[in-house]
Amino acid sequence: MKKTLVLLLCILLFVSCKSESKSASESALAEQHTAQLIQGDFVYYADAAVLQTKDDIYGVIINAKMHELNTKVNVFKKEDTDMVPVQIKGIITIKPEGEEGWPLQIEITDIITVSQPKAQDENTIKI
């Protein structure tokens, strides 16, 4: 009787854990395909585009919207490597295996604002 109860309990535990991980991965995929509002600093230099936020760094997928954003950002740049504050909507995905770049990628879907960068203080190191 005890063996049957333990066996039944183990099967129940195994089945319940299995369904939780499946629903968690499905919700993660659903989140990846919805546009999110992101605010950060953008730079496009030497065929690489990067968006740096307070918490993460994203490789920006190069497409027509990225080039449109770069055109708007160039108005505020003094040097090619200057980062400009932007607010965009984009779809965040995980970088495919075998590709170079940051672990997270963002595909820009909408450009909200492009702002003038803050003045750099004299302690900023320029390369």
How would you describe the overall organization of this protein?
The protein has 127 residues and is α+β, with helices and mostly antiparallel strands. The protein has a domain at 36-114: OB fold (Dihydrolipoamide Acetyltransferase, E2P) (Beta Barrel), CATH 2.40.50.140. Helix content is 33%, strand content 32%. The protein has two helices and five strands, in the order αβββαββ. It has helices spanning 2-32, 64-74, and strands spanning 36-45, 48-52, 57-60, 84-94, 104-114. It has a five-stranded mixed beta barrel with strand order 1-2-3-5-4. The longest helix has 31 residues, at 2-32. The model is unreliable at 19-27 (pLDDT under 50).
Task: Describe, in short, the structure shown.
The chain is α+β, with helices and mostly antiparallel strands.
Specify the number of helices. 2
Q: What multimeric state do the chains show?
A: single chain
Secondary-structure element order, as H and E? Answer: HEEEHEE
Distance between the termini: 75 Å
Mean pLDDT: 82
Q: Do you know the CATH topology of the domain at 36-114?
A: OB fold (Dihydrolipoamide Acetyltransferase, E2P)
Give, in spatial order, the strands making up the sheet with the most strands: 1-2-3-5-4
CATH top level of the domain at 36-114 is Mainly Beta
Radius of gyration: 22 Å
Structural class: alpha+beta
Q: Profile the largest sheet.
A: 5 strands, mixed, barrel
* CA-based shape: elongated
Features:
single chain, alpha+beta, five-stranded mixed barrel, 33% helix, 32% strand, signal
